[in-house]
Amino acid sequence: MRLRNKPWAVKLVNEHPESVIQDPNPEVKIDWESRFEDFSRPLEIEVGSGKGKFITTLAERYPEKNFIALELQTTAAGIILRTKLEKNLTNLQIMRADAADIDSFFAENSADKIYLNFSDPWPKSRHEKRRLTYKSFLAKYQYVLKDIGHLEFKTDNSGLFAYSLQSLNNYGMNFDFVSVDLHHEANEILDHNIETEYEHKFASKDNPIYALHATFKTKNL
Predict the structure, then answer these.
(1) How large is the angle between the packed helices 135-144 and 158-170, nearest 10 degrees?
(2) Could you count the other beta carbons within 10 Å of the beta carbon of residue 155?
(3) Pairing of strands 210-215, 145-155
(4) What global pTM score does this model have?
């Protein structure tokens, strides 16, 4: 969902280049090491962070890790940045860019986990290649992630969930966890679940939340 433009958000983003990378050149790898206090920490990326409730909560809860919010909209990036500054989340960086270029922004084997939360379902068949669980995106995630890298996915869209299950299976991924009603299943995953803004909205209406965790097979197999 596209957010209404907020001038304050644009201004805030422009004032903090140390926290937000805007429109990076896909031909130049980003020096992430210089943007974190300790780049030896595990690195986790959320693709499509929206207003950032999920990624900022993660960064606050796990100060021993580094996090990157990848978000295309400037207003959304500004909202995330405001929270980052208010909570002094030094382990969080924001990048305003297109997820289609994710393999250009990160070195191979550089991240430990990628999150896909409530991505645009792109329901029309002709838009299949835009879905963030399409095989070309999976190949890019595998490049960025370390061997046996983890992918976590949540959605309220049953069609996208069914498609994603098939796409990941066809890609040869291993499923560690699958749920068709995350909020009504008693499990350890739910105990540690962090809600996004969309998730809270849909779950409060008693709509099922679909989730899966999967790992890539080692690249040298």
Answers:
(1) 60
(2) 26
(3) antiparallel
(4) 0.94
